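Backbone-to-sequence.
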């Protein structure tokens, strides 16, 4: 019973198409919806972001037993392309109007940053809905100088929370040969304050996890060797591992345990 993707109009003036998995019928009536929100391609030149996003979608709609478990327990909301005008124009980083959208999460304008405005409204709506729990936010990018896949996360004063959000990238490192935990870093640089990861890290509740997932434009090095393996459109290793690790993340403190089945 592979779900069909369905189009969903976003709030706000943006004509934004997001994919909704699974179909509402897969969830129990009245149950709290646990949501994983994934965005991609806010920077139009970062084509590997789309390949990883495509890999995640392909995996989630597949017959793989882990994909079926994920669909049974979680709602995946995916906005695969946050900067379609920039992509259409062949821009490297900016939208049609010349904005780096990933510096405008704090106060997006419906006129100047419509896709960002629409996605932010949707996320805030979910955040305010007592029947929805936004568990993960992952924004997919590509990196022009670093190798491998890696993540950026947030820094918190609360040591326990800080340690807890390091678990997902550690799991990725164990499950994906191209993912590097040593290149993963946690920061709160002023220059990154307008990014999705930083803004949502401050907005969402204590048990939500927000990351930027970066994948090299070029290649990855397998641990213990010096050989570089070029990334290709078909190589979705990271995507599959990201989904698998979501299953292994374990229970939220105080939350119900989700059995991997
Ligand atoms: Zn980027």
């Amino acid at each position: 019973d592979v779900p069909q993707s369905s189009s969903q109009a976003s709030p706000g003036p943006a004509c934004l198409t997001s994919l909704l998995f699974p179909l509402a019928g897969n969830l129990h009536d009245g149950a709290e919806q646990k949501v994983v929100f994934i965005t991609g391609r806010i920077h139009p030149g970062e084509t590997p972001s789309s390949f990883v996003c495509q890999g995640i979608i392909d995996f989630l709609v597949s017959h793989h037993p882990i994909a079926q478990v994920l669909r049974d327990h979680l709602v995946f909301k995916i906005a695969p392309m946050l900067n379609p005008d920039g992509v259409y124009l062949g821009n490297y980083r900016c939208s049609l109007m010349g904005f780096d959208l990933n510096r405008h999460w704090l106060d997006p304008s419906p006129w100047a940053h419509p896709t960002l405005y629409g996605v932010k409204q949707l996320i805030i709506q979910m955040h305010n809905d007592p029947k929805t729990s936004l568990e993960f936010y992952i924004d997919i990018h590509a990196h022009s100088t670093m190798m491998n896949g890696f993540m950026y996360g947030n820094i918190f004063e609360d040591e326990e929370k800080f340690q807890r959000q390091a678990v997902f990238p550690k799991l990725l490192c164990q499950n994906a040969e191209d993912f590097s935990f040593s290149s993963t870093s946690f920061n709160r640089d002023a220059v990154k304050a307008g990014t999705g990861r930083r803004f949502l890290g401050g907005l969402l509740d204590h048990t939500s996890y927000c990351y930027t997932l970066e994948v090299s434009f070029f290649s990855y090095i397998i641990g213990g060797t010096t050989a570089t393996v070029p990334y290709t459109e078909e190589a979705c290793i990271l995507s599959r591992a990201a989904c698998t690790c979501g299953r292994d993340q374990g229970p939220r403190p105080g939350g119900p345990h989700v059995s991997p089945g």
